[in-house]
Amino acid sequence: MTASAKSPHRGFVAVAVCVAGLLAYANSFTNGFVWDDASSVLLHKHVQDPGQFFQLFREDQHAFGRGQGNFYRPLVSASFMLDFALARSTLFPASAGHIPDISPFLFHVTNLVWHVAAALLLLALLARLDAPPLVSVCVPLLYVVHPLHTEAVTYISGRADPMSASFMFLALWFGLAGRTPVRRMAAAAGCWISFAAALLCKESAFVLPALLLLAVFIPARRDDSGAPTGLIQRLIPAIGAFAILAVYAFLRSGPLNFVKASAPEAAAPFDQRLVETGQAFASYLGLVFAPTHLHMERALTGAPVWLAGAGYLLMVAGIAGAVIAYRLGQRRITLGLAWFLITWLPISGLFPLNAPMAEHWMYVPLAGFLWALAELLALTWRSGFARAAIPAAVFAALLVFVTLTAQRNRDWRSNESLYSATLDENPNSARVHFNLAVTYEDILKNLPGARRHYRSVLALAARKGAGAVSTNEEIESHLSLGQIALKLGDYQDAAQHFQPLLALPVTDSTRPIIATAALGIGKCFLGVGDIQKAAASFEQAAIIPEFKAETDSLIAGKMLPGAI
Predict the structure, then answer these.
(1) 3 state SS for 357-420
(2) Minimal CA–CA distance to 194: which of 166, 158, 161, 234?
(3) How does DSSP classify residue 148?
(4) How far lies 164's CA from each of 25, 90, 279, 411, in Å?
(5) How confident is residue 384, by pLDDT bands cut at 50, 70 and 90?
(6) pLDDT at 95 over 80
(7) What span, in angstroms and rounded, lies between the C-alpha atoms of 564 and 524?
(8) CA–CA distance from 508 to each of 88, 529, 544 (Å)?
(9) Helix segments in 26-159, DSSP class H
(10) d(Cα 77, Cα 64) in Å, to the nearest integer?
(11) Partners of residue 88 on adjacent β-strands
């Protein structure tokens, strides 16, 4: 087989991609709902009601979560709606105030279907770009089993990535189609519809018009009459895509901006982001070749400064490689490298994001990188050594990647396993300590475990030297530690956690917190027999009328102190 030989039967490659994907992710089907799956599915009343389908297009994806987000992904929510309708238990229907009893099995199967669809559409796109057989075989197979994708596939709420990527790849496939005027316009319409769908799955799809512009670098195609396709004709899909992007940007900055009334989070200084961008680039490339120690809370704290220099050198090498390949006529290598660099730029960290790195952000960029790498290897195919070494290396990589992916899937079995595995890699994540503490307290009823991780949240906050209680995790950790201490009869420890909350500034959001803390301190005083101080604390708790009956009952002696 030569690099220029005809592609092998695409049906065989497609079947191989499906089998490889199933082998890598089969053990994810028994995993549960974790992390944001609660707000995306289990608590989302509109997802659970097919009559609210159109409402999904008017709200944040996490409209029923804690706090207001700005994730406009209605097609992802619609896919959850379909899964929910098919999977919900008839014995335990969803009802107000209750978490529905449904199996996550179908949700995990759907995630894999979208992931395999993305790999198959990538295969179709490579075929349309006349990629060599080696590329058409290796890229989709390595893509479908690469462990970096576990965060997007095994995690139900990660579905936005494979859905958005599938529509992006389809849009590119359409954007390169059509050899007659009628077919070109039909293909352009398919491109625009697919792009709009990609945007309705995930915001990062906005880079697609830039990828369409890259298609201009492909050697001119000819229509059925043999005449070369003009530049303007090839630009039509990109021009329409830019128009769609302009409309989308207008809507997201206006009626579909769900956090316009909120204060923006403080971004890291630009010089810090500049260093982290280089560090992230080098780290991402390292994970492409050695995808181990994967976890959701990636941080660059403590990363050496030299890593940033290495990252920028690699960036320069990538840009230089794209330019050299273009001049040598290897335009698919140019397209692959440019694809990788352009789709990586929005996640680079140069622009403020909610994290310096995230594995699932590489879902689309990885396709471009694997493509460019495979094209480079295809250039060596005529060598006898390459004919033996490349298939062996690719097969070994497939085996390793399938094994690593299956191992990583186990981390997502439950909230406990996910948070514990994450803390093994990043023990300084206050958010994960807090989530694990909540899991222990509310689900597993493991109070010692909950206490340990709530205390870790406060210890990490104290290490930062912030002083007064400020974050939601700190506030709720103090509240929970106080409540746990009350249950254990440790009134002194309970009071120490409730007391700082009384100093919070009084606002609509903090008033219930202050009242709850005052109620807790009052119970502490009752526990040690100081009725007078308990009554004073209960008066402060009375700013929440709902507490009045309980405090009156406690003072009147209708509840024994030992039962507090």
Answers:
(1) CCHHHHCCHHHHHHHHHHHHHHCCCCCHHHHHHHHHHHHHHHHHHHHHHHHHHHHCCCHHHHHH
(2) 166
(3) G
(4) 20, 32, 27, 24
(5) confident
(6) no
(7) 9
(8) 37, 32, 11
(9) 37, 74-87, 105-128, 133-145, 150-153
(10) 12
(11) 102
Distance CA 394, CA 396 (A): 5
Nearest-5° Cα angle at 308, 466 to 151: 75
* Distance from C-alpha of 280 to C-alpha of 283, rounded to nearest angstrom: 5
Q: Which residue has the tokens 């207008």?
A: 250
pLDDT digits (tens, 9 = 90+) for 314-371: 999 999 999 999 999 999 999 999 999 999 999 998 888 888 999 999 999 999 999 9
Distance (Å, whole) CA 205 – CA 167:
9
Exposed e or buried b for every residue in 137-160, given b needs 16+ CB within 10 A? bbbbbbbbbbbbbbbbbbbbbbbb
- What 133-136 contacts at long range (C-beta under 8 Å, 24+ apart), as own/partner pairs, is 133/1, 133/3, 133/5, 133/6, 133/7, 133/8, 134/1, 134/3, 134/374, 134/377, 134/378, 134/381, 134/390, 135/332, 135/371, 135/374, 135/375, 135/378, 136/7, 136/8, 136/10, 136/13
Q: What is the Cα–Cα distance from 196 to 561, expressed in whole angstroms?
A: 61
How far apart, in whole angstroms, are the C-alpha atoms of residue 360 and residue 357?
9
Q: How far is CA 288 from CA 324, 376, 423, in A?
A: 23, 16, 22
Query: How far is the C-alpha of 26 from the C-alpha of 207, rounded, in Å?
Result: 32
Please report which confidence band the pLDDT of residue 268 belongs to, taking 50, 70 and 90 as the band edges: confident
pLDDT of residue 264: 46
> For residue 4, what are the CA distances in angstroms to 112, 126, 378?
32, 14, 9
CA distance 524 to 519: 9
Contacts of 441 by beta carbon, 8 Å cutoff, 6+ apart: 447, 450, 480, 484
Phi/psi for 222 (5° steps) reads -115, 145
Are 101 and 91 in contact by the 8 Å Cβ rule? The answer is yes
The span from the CA of 170 to the CA of 176, in Å, is 10
The identity of residue 493, as a single letter, is D
Query: Would you call 102 helix, strand, or coil by DSSP?
Result: strand
Residue labelled with tokens 């390292």: 286
Pick from 440, 555, 554, 537: which is nearest to 498 by CA? 537
Q: How wide is the angle at C-alpha 547 spanned by C-alphas 541 and 549, nearest 5°?
A: 125
pLDDT score for 104: 95
Q: Where are the domains of the chain?
A: 20-258+270-410, 428-563
Superfamily of domain 428-563: Tetratricopeptide repeat domain (1.25.40.10)
Q: Report pLDDT for 468.
A: 67
In contact, 34 and 158? CB cutoff 8 Å: no
